[in-house]
Amino acid sequence: MSVDQLFSLANQSALVGWIILVFLPRRWPPIFWIPQFLIPGVLSLGYATLALMHFAGGEGGFGSIADVRLLFASDEILLAGWIHYLAFDLFIGAWIARRSDEARIPRLIQAVILGFTFMYGPVGLLLFFMVRALMGRRTGTIS
Prior knowledge:
Layout: H1 3-23, H2 29-54, H3 65-71, H4 75-102, H5 107-120, H6 122-139
């Protein structure tokens, strides 16, 4: 498969997970398992494969911004980095969804938080922490 085909497949897979998290009316465990573990696991396997095949021979590294730029000049390593984002953001999105249900955060608010997590990763996580803290203060149940 070409790098472009793998990129599309990874994006489509992650998108399926996000659709399940945001739009399914109920978090039924057999379905929720897909965005929580299955898709991030498969993406992680893809990441590991690309990393093992291409990182050792790649130029650059993580010692400076110039080294990182040089490392990600390779399409295969850039794809590995993108898959890393997709896997972690989806896993964190599933964690946020589950914790939001436990905290009784309304689904509409969850959809906004998950949208930010999908697009901006850590911003969505920060938003979740803020909403959970505010709602916990109202109910006296911050955890």
